[in-house]
Write a structure and sequence with these properties.
184 residues; 10 helices; mainly alpha; 70% helix; Tetracycline Repressor, domain 2
């Protein structure tokens, strides 16, 4: 995708395109912003495990259905040196508003539904205070690996259940004392 190709397809002058998108990266970020589907709504009812499984499976469905080219290009647009979540201090000042917005939307899309579930009274009672970024990484990491690796016969739904069960096993209150005891 080049700026020239976009101007030809849109039948607009290059100057008009640059008036709306100061750079090719801004144009690319705006295109991906429009293509990223909305985040799934977390279920309001059920056990903590059932709610997390439903959410991770819904996110897995979105990830599994995304075209590989869109996934790869979105990944490249986000950049490999994203050290902090968007909105945090010290984010890269060289990012344009479009790229920053894309980064923020992707981060929010995957984190916000987990915030809803993990801040519920049920989750707080079972898990205590859980770092949301770590939770999203542990729960969605295996799903992202499946997408990026393009493994044949990768069962997103089964991996979602396994990820949730592993997360709950290591994060339920008392799990840290079991882990510490087994390390001694």
């Amino acid at each position: 995708m080049t700026v020239d190709a976009v101007t030809r397809a849109a039948n607009v002058a290059r100057a008009t395109l640059y008036r709306h998108f100061p750079s090719g990266n801004d144009l690319l970020a705006a295109a991906f912003h429009a293509l990223i589907p909305p985040a799934p709504t977390p279920p309001a009812e059920g056990s903590l495990r059932d709610r997390l499984i439903a959410l991770v499976q819904a996110q897995a469905d979105l990830i599994a259905e995304a075209p590989v080219t869109l996934t790869a290009m979105s990944w490249l647009t986000l950049g490999g040196d994203l050290e902090r979540l968007p909105g945090a201090p010290n984010r890269r000042s060289s990012d344009s508003p479009e790229v920053q917005t894309l980064r923020e939307r992707v981060a929010e899309q995957y984190a916000a539904p987990f915030d809803v579930i993990l801040s519920s009274p049920q989750a707080v009672a079972e898990l205590g205070d859980v770092d949301r970024t770590t939770a999203a990484a542990l729960l969605l990491g295996p799903i992202a690996l499946g997408k990026l690796s393009t493994l044949p016969n990768f069962d997103y739904r089964e991996i979602a259940i396994t990820a949730v069960d592993g997360f709950l096993a290591t994060h339920r209150k008392g799990a840290e004392s079991l882990t510490a005891a087994s390390n001694e």
